[in-house]
Design a protein that fits this description.
Layout (H helix, E strand, L loop, with lengths): L6 E9 L2 E10 L5 E5 L10 E2 L4 E2 L2 E6 L20 H14 L2 H17 L2 E8 L15 H13 L2 E8 L21 H12 L6 E3 L1 E3 L7 H11 L6 E5 L3 H11 L3 H8 L6 E5 L5 H10 L2 E4 L1 H7 L6 H7 L3 E3 L9 H16 L15 H16 L15 E4 L14 H7 L6 E6 L2 E5 L2 E2 L2 H16 L6
Helix pairs in contact: 2-3, 2-14, 4-5
């Protein structure tokens, strides 16, 4: 891997929630920002001059890497109805087939695409644990290491979140046969988390996840949380994504999912509630009081027909709001932010729903980007994130000649990136001071793509384009 740069200069960079001019960015020996200084009119002689406006990289706060092998392959209907649950049953076919080598190939391709889409860190909600027959591998972390190796292949930061997954629903005591690879216990999850945390890989950290209230018994959730204690690590959970889940939770507990979770456990800033689509005002208030964050995945939620969460309600309460790509029908944050806003416009029949007049130019993109920037860092267990001293030295260089940005005034570059570009308008991407995307390409892109294509052929038995 190429050596890190130690000093950058940008004519324009997004610092402290706004565009600033003449910005020097200095990198320390650990690949973190040691100094960010604005108002430096002339680039220092030792600095690399970045050839475009500079943004911090974003965290993709929710990913199931293996589902990249299924993206675009569930868009036909041969039955009277099709919904999240029928999609899930078809998705399990991929989950049952992937080998560790194929998992690495699929994840590496995905992670290169994420870098090209402006993400520099991903929270991997990892529940594909066991062999195709459902038996533990000799090394129980084999599939987790396949994911971690893929992130290392790509040069993407990874927060590995091993998932507690033990039953098929509130009324079931065990998993279905087609969920056999997901089986885990609190002890298993804690062991995988410790393995990731102790691996001494510079771009890897770990947390834990609970698949959902329906998929983990209350006693097991409590046991996992007891083992975590007050350790500083992210805690993620799918919650209130589908109305069937809400209704099942009401039937079995007497409460809606977020209400039950907030009452049963002492939520805090470590908790990340993924989707939180169907939340009532009282539940949103409980999340606000706790300090927990939410993770919205607009492209997947749209693809699966989940419904609309109350974005204005979450923003008005100041609840941290990160974004994720989940099933990976989209792999760039500009599109996720666009569809987060467009969904609300369609629902409410108004424009610029997320904007806050009087702040950051009254710009919708600025408010959503800042929300995703700050909340994403917390979701990944990164205490400092963005173009601030102490954060990892990640940055994105926009291409001002890209379609959608050409001729755009300087202080509208973020707006146009989100709302006027058909593809991510990025020239370069840096992670920990190292360039991983140059002129839109990854140095290992062709080799990684070839392995991905071979894995897809093995999984689907049909050559691409045949």
């Amino acid at each position: 891997m190429n050596a890190p740069q130690t000093l950058f200069w940008a004519a324009q960079a997004w610092v402290q929630g706004r565009w600033q001019r003449g910005v020097c960015l200095e990198v320390d020996a650990m690949g973190r920002w040691s100094r960010i200084e604005s108002g430096v009119a002339v680039a220092p002689a030792a600095a690399m001059v970045l050839q475009g406006p500079v943004l911090p990289g974003l965290v993709n706060a929710h990913s199931h890497a293996f589902q990249r092998a299924f993206a675009g392959l569930a868009e036909r209907r041969n039955t009277e109805a099709d919904d999240f649950w029928s999609w899930r049953d078809r998705m399990y076919g991929v989950a049952l087939a992937l080998t560790p080598a194929q998992m690495r190939a699929v994840a590496a391709q995905l992670y290169v695409e994420m870098l090209q889409g402006g993400y520099t860190q991903v929270c991997e909600f990892h529940y594909l644990h066991h062999s195709e027959r459902g038996h533990p591998y000799e090394d129980p972390a084999t599939m987790a290491w396949a994911v971690a190796d893929a992130a290392q292949d790509a040069g993407l930061g990874l927060t590995l979140l091993p998932v507690l997954y033990e039953r098929a629903g509130f009324a079931q005591g065990a998993l279905r046969e087609d969920q056999r690879r997901f089986a885990s216990t609190p002890e298993f999850v804690a062991t995988l988390q410790k393995g990731a945390q102790n691996a001494a890989r510079p771009l890897l950290n770990g947390g834990v996840a609970i698949h959902s209230l329906r998929a983990a018994a209350p006693g097991s959730v409590a046991q996992l949380l007891q083992s975590v204690g007050d350790q500083d690590m992210p805690l993620h959970i799918h919650i209130a994504e589908q109305m069937q889940e809400v209704n099942d939770c009401l039937a079995h507990t007497g409460q809606r999912p977020i209400a039950w979770l907030a009452q049963a456990h002492a939520l805090d800033a470590r908790w990340q509630l993924v989707h939180a689509t169907h939340a009532e005002a009282a539940e949103m208030d409980a999340v606000r009081r706790s300090g927990a964050g939410i993770v919205i995945c607009p492209s997947t939620e749209g693809n699966l027909g989940d419904g609309f969460t109350d974005v204005p309600g979450w923003l008005q309460r100041g609840v941290p709001l990160a974004i994720g790509s989940d099933s990976h029908v989209c792999r760039q944050w500009m599109q996720e932010l666009r569809w987060l806003e467009y969904g609300q416009r369609l629902l409410l029949q108004r424009r610029n729903i997320a904007a806050r007049p009087g702040w950051a130019y009254g710009a919708t993109a600025a408010r959503l980007f800042e929300a995703a920037l700050q909340a994403g860092g917390a979701a990944a267990g990164q205490h400092r994130w963005g173009l601030v001293a102490g954060a990892r030295a990640d940055l994105l260089v926009l291409d001002p000649a890209a379609s959608g940005l050409l001729g755009v005034p300087a202080n509208h570059m973020l707006d146009a990136s989100v709302f006027a570009c058909d593809s991510a308008p990025l020239r370069e991407v840096y992670v920990a001071g190292r360039c991983v995307i140059r002129q839109g390409r990854h140095a290992r892109q062709d080799a990684i793509a070839a392995r991905f294509e071979a894995a897809m052929l093995a999984l689907w038995g049909e050559p691409a384009g045949a």
